[in-house]
Every structure is written in structure tokens, then in C-alpha cells.
């Protein structure tokens, strides 16, 4: 018996082994002591072959001479397949129930361990996890778990079901996997951790084999790099179950080799030096974390792009902190770790890191780097809403470029100006964001809500969409003009050519800015509810946005008003009738 499992996915893939070869691989693994087989309903050569891999596993077990009762079969539900290569999440209770019933038919009930394959961003996690708990109550599955989760999601899942296993990707060259906190948390909580893709999958295995430290150590022991990696992963934690996916007898033989391979202390130390994230699993936190009052401080300032971090950073720089920022240093967030390392090694004791750090794993890298120099870390989280950060992004673009850039201009500008980014940069941050918590090892987490400075302008305006106006709106608009409001237009002409600079509604001239970008996912800052054009009008006319009004028919105008802090007024409420549409 070994903690090594066999990942069976690729035994059912296009170009993979024949059925007989695949069954021989499974038998070799079982004969080498493997007692865990990983499958899923969606593993198969094509979208039409749901259940292919489960049937293969069932057949191999039926034909195996050993004791089937000793083998744990792990299956998963919660994904569907569409066409070549498209795997879509479906976390509805209805789908999971039907999928599990079908898997149980193929594998025999109860399934030993059933996992939610991936989280469905369209559903509440609780819906999917409760569905798993019900399957367990019905006796269709013995144990349940989740796959491909972040730590906050795992914690949430545990509120709705007894999660006894977690499956995540874990391979030596991936800096993120251990740093997410999931692996250590599972070790602490006694949750089985199944490590999928331990070689990084077929595309990365060759890179792994060329790694100098791995290659040298494997050579010295006369084993393959793959066997060495498996033996090392096994040594990192008692609850860790690596499930490599060999598809040939030659490669599957390494399961038996890895099982027998005991690494020496020296070998483990050399591996840990090459892959320092492993230290998180092998060395208790008390031995890694410096006392909170130790000399020096690294302050990690984090928040969404354009959340207002720079303003906070200035204060630290004025107090003598060294500022490290990805935009200045170039590269990605992880590339700052060696720079922090060098700065602390050269004697700097106060450093402020000014970056987005949306993920726990990106923050962990900096925390552990600082700790290696005995320096504690504090987190300052600039908690700015997406809406406020969008306004900030547009204001910055106007300051730097004198205009709100379109998607193509943005791409060009972004090469030299990291502050000119498309709206999806902030959406991405929000999608992957994990709120910082003290248990990451921070001395403190200071949450600083974003506060917008009062506008310098005093004028006020009614923002309208000329395409929504009717002739009879002229009266209410004239009333507003009489009260000192400007009337300004924000229009959308997805045909590519802007409309006129001014639109006339009777005697009222409405200076108008146009978004000319096509429908579909928002790629520009100017399509409502994004505030690019409104921010440009605020600047151009010296407006106080809070004193402005946004007239409109729907969610886009309501959202725009929210971003500006202006008042939204539904068009029906300013004028109840309907006359002819305005000529543009
Ligand atoms: N939960 C999830 O979302 C999830 C995601 C991905 C994978 N998984 C599970 O994890 C399993 C493993 O994942 P994976 O297949 O992507 O990754 P992997 O095991 O890291 O990589 C598979 C590749 O490694 C090669 N390989 C395996 N053993 C080798 C050896 N001893 N020497 C040289 N090359 C070797 C295989 O080559 P050959 O084909 O030549 O043997 C194949 O190209 C899957 O089968 C699946 O069950 C789960």
C-alpha cells in the first residue's frame, strides 16, 4: 500500500493507449501497490464519450486479480464538455445528482470518494456542496470532497458538508500550489490532499526533467526525475497523495520505483533549497515566523488596480521605507521576491510593497521571503469598490493621455504605461481575489476604505443618452437648464463612426461624446455603465459629479450614476409621455 494514486484521465484521451494497454497500465499500478484510482465522468476522448474513463476503470478493476475492496476509486462531477477541449462548469444540484447517479451506475455504488470537479462561477458554492452532502446521505457515495479550490472556498465548503478530501494541482515548479495555503490547511485539519498533475501535465514534464537539481539528484540515485519527484512529494506531508498520469507501462513502472525510494536528509534539503515553498509544509510556522516586534517591517499594500494604493504608499516612502513596485521593476508579481530578498539581505529593514496581490499565494511569497530575513510583515488593504476603482482608472487615463483611450490605443499605451489598462484587469482582480487574513502570518491587516476627495468643479449637469430622448423631454430639460444645469450627452454608436458633436433637441444643444465600440464583452471604458465619457465631461466642464443627474432607461445609466455618485432619474419619471424620437 502506498499513498501514490494513478490519475486515469489520459488513459482515455485521443491518441492515448488502446483499451488493452490502458488496462495493463492500471493493473501495473495496482500490482505496484497503488490503491487509489482517479477518474471523472467527463474523462473520455470526446464530448460524446461521457463515462468512458469510469467504464475503463470499472473494467480494469473487474479484471484485476487483487482485492477490489482495497482500492479507493475517486470520481468527480460538476463539469460538462462542449466540443473539442471545452470543459464547462455546471454546479447545479440537478446536474450533480444526475451525474453522480450515472457514475454510480458505471462504477457501482457507493462510489468511494466523490468530488466537485470545479467550482461553477454562476452558482453559489453552497448549492453544489449541499448537493454532494445529499448524495452521501443517500448512500450513493461514501465520502465527498472538492477539487481546484482556494482556501477561502474550501473553508466555505466545509460549512455545508463534511469535506474529507481535496484535489488540487501540485508540481514542484509551480510556485503557487503550496502557497495558496490549501495544502498546509489540509495537513493541519487531517483532510486527504490529492495532488493532481504532479509533473505539471504532458507539456511541462520535459522542462521538469531538465531541472538541474532534480536531474542531478535523480542521476545520483539512478532513478528518473519523475520517480524522484513522486518520492519527494510523498515525503512532504503524511496526508498528501500524488496522482501522476502515466499512459505507458514504461512510465507507470516509476510508481513502484517511487514507492521504494527513501530520500536522505541531504537530498531533501537540496530539494527544499531549490523549491523553497516546500518549507511551508516541512517547517512549523513558529520556526519560520519572526516575532511581531522584531526589528524592521515589510508593509504589503494591496488592492485592485487603480484602487488608490499610490497615495498610501507615499506616506511610507516619506518615512524612509524602500518602495518596491512591479511597474518599476518590470516582470510579474513573483519577480519582486528576489528583489525584496536582495534588499533585506543588503541591510534594508523597512520596505513597502505596492502591488495588487489579489491571491493568497502571491502574498505568501513575499511573507516567506521577508520572514527568511527575520522581518515581520503587515498588510494594508486598500478596500476600494470596483465602481470607485473604475472612476479612478478613467481619471488617471485622462491625466496621462488627455483622453479616455479606446481598446487599441490602450494596448499600445500599456506597453509603456501600466496604468492604462482595460476594464478586464479590474474584473480579473475581483474574480481571483482572496481577502487577506491574519492567519496568512501578517502582524496586522489594516483595512483602509477608499475615500474620494471632493471634486474641484462646482458646475452641475444632466447626463442624457440622445438616443433615448423624445421631443417632449425638451420641457423638463429646459427647466433644468433654467436651474443652472448643463445638458450633456453620452451616446453609443456601435457602428464605428461617432455621432455629431452636438445633438439638438428643439432649441436645446446637447454636446455629446460617443462610444463607438462594438457590442459584446466590454473592452473600452466608455460604454455605460463604465464612466469614461462621463469622467471626461466632468473634467471638461468643471462639474461636481455628486451634484449631477443621470437620466436613462435602464441598468447602464443607473450603474453610471452609482459610479459617479450622481442621482439616477428614470426617464419615465421625468416625463411620462412618449412622443416622436429625436432626429440624430
Ligand atoms: N481535478 C482536476 O481538475 C484534475 C486536473 C488535471 C488532472 N487530474 C488528474 O490528475 C492526473 C494526472 O494529471 P496529468 O496527467 O495532467 O499530469 P501529470 O501526471 O503531471 O503528467 C502526465 C504526463 O507525465 C508523463 N509521465 C508520467 N509518468 C512519467 C514518468 N515516470 N516518466 C516520464 N514521463 C512520465 C506522462 O507521459 P506518458 O503519457 O508517456 O506516460 C504524461 O505525458 C490525471 O490523470 C487526472 O486523473 C485532475
UniProtKB/TrEMBL annotation:
This is Putative oxidoreductase YdbC. Gene3D superfamilies: NADP-dependent oxidoreductase domain, P-loop containing nucleotide triphosphate hydrolases. Transmembrane segments: none annotated. Keywords: Oxidoreductase. CDD domains: AKR_AKR13B1. GO terms for molecular function: oxidoreductase activity. One of its GO terms (cellular component) is cytoplasm. Its EC number is 1.-.-.-. The gene is ydbC_1. Residues 3-273 form the NADP-dependent oxidoreductase domain. It holds the Pfam family AAA_33. It is an enzyme of class 1 (oxidoreductase).
Amino acid at each position: 500500500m502506498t499513498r501514490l494514486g494513478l490519475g486515469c484521465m489520459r488513459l482515455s484521451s485521443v491518441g492515448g493507449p488502446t483499451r488493452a494497454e490502458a488496462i495493463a497500465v492500471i493493473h501495473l499500478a495496482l500490482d505496484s501497490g497503488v490503491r487509489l484510482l482517479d477518474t471523472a465522468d467527463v474523462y473520455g476522448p470526446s464530448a460524446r464519450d461521457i463515462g468512458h474513463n469510469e467504464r475503463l476503470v470499472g473494467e480494469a478493476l473487474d479484471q484485476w486479480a487483487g482485492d477490489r475492496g482495497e482500492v479507493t476509486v475517486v470520481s468527480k462531477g460538476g463539469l460538462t464538455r462542449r466540443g473539442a477541449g471545452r470543459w464547462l462548469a455546471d454546479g447545479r444540484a440537478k446536474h450533480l445528482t444526475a451525474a453522480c447517479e450515472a457514475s454510480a451506475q458505471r462504477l457501482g455504488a457507493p462510489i468511494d470518494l466523490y468530488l466537485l470537479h470545479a467550482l461553477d462561477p454562476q452558482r453559489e458554492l453552497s448549492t453544489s456542496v449541499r448537493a454532494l452532502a445529499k448524495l452521501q446521505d443517500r448512500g450513493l457515495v461514501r465520502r465527498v470532497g472538492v477539487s481546484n479550490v482556494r482556501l477561502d472556498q474550501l473553508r466555505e465548503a466545509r460549512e455545508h458538508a463534511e469535506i474529507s478530501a481535496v484535489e488540487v494541482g501540485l508540481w514542484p515548479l509551480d510556485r503557487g500550489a503550496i502557497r495558496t495555503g490549501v495544502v498546509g490547511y489540509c495537513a493541519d485539519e487531517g483532510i486527504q490532499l490529492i495532488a493532481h498533475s504532479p509533473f505539471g501535465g504532458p507539456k511541462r514534464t520535459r522542462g521538469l526533467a531538465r531541472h538541474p537539481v532534480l536531474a542531478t539528484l535523480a542521476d545520483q540515485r539512478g532513478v528518473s526525475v519523475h520517480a524522484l519527484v513522486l518520492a519527494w512529494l510523498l515525503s512532504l506531508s503524511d496526508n498528501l497523495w500524488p496522482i501522476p498520469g502515466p499512459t505507458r507501462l514504461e512510465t507507470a513502472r516509476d510508481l513502484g520505483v517511487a514507492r521504494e525510494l527513501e530520500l536522505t536528509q541531504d537530498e531533501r534539503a537540496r530539494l527544499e533549497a531549490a523549491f523553497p515553498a516546500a518549507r511551508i509544509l516541512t517547517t512549523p510556522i513558529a520556526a519560520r515566523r519572526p516575532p511581531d516586534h522584531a526589528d524592521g517591517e515589510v508593509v504589503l499594500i494591496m488592492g485592485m488596480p487603480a484602487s488608490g494604493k499610490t497615495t498610501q504608499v507615499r506616506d511610507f516612502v516619506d518615512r524612509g521605507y524602500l518602495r518596491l513596485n512591479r511597474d518599476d521593476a518590470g516582470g510579474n508579481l513573483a519577480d519582486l521576491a528576489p528583489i525584496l530578498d536582495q534588499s533585506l539581505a543588503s541591510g534594508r529593514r523597512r520596505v513597502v510593497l505596492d502591488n495588487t496581490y489579489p491571491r493568497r499565494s502571491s502574498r505568501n511569497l513575499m511573507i516567506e521571503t521577508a520572514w527568511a530575513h527575520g522581518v515581520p510583515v503587515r498588510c494594508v488593504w486598500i478596500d476600494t469598490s470596483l465602481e470607485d476603482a473604475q472612476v479612478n482608472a478613467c481619471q488617471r487615463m485622462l491625466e496621462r493621455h488627455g483622453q479616455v483611450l479606446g481598446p487599441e490605443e490602450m494596448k499600445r499605451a500599456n506597453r509603456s504605461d501600466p496604468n492604462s489598462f482595460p476594464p478586464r484587469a479590474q474584473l480579473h482582480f475581483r474574480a481571483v481575489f482572496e481577502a487577506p487574513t491574519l492567519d496568512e502570518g501578517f502582524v496586522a491587516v489594516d483595512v483602509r476604505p477608499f475615500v474620494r476627495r471632493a471634486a474641484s468643479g462646482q458646475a452641475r449637469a444632466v447626463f442624457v443618452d440622445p438616443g433615448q430622448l423624445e421631443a417632449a423631454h425638451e420641457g423638463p430639460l429646459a427647466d433644468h437648464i433654467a436651474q443652472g444645469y448643463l445638458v450633456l450627452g453620452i451616446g453609443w454608436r456601435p457602428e464605428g463612426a461617432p455621432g455629431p458633436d452636438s445633438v439638438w433637441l428643439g432649441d436645446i444643444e446637447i454636446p455629446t461624446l460617443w462610444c463607438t465600440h462594438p457590442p459584446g464583452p466590454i473592452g473600452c471604458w466608455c460604454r455605460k455603465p463604465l464612466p469614461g465619457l462621463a469622467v471626461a465631461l466632468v473634467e471638461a466642464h468643471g462639474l461636481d459629479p455628486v451634484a449631477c443627474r443621470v437620466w436613462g432607461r435602464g441598468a447602464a445609466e443607473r450603474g453610471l450614476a452609482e459610479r459617479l455618485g450622481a442621482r439616477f432619474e428614470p426617464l419615465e419619471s421625468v416625463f411620462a409621455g412618449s412622443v416622436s424620437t429625436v432626429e440624430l
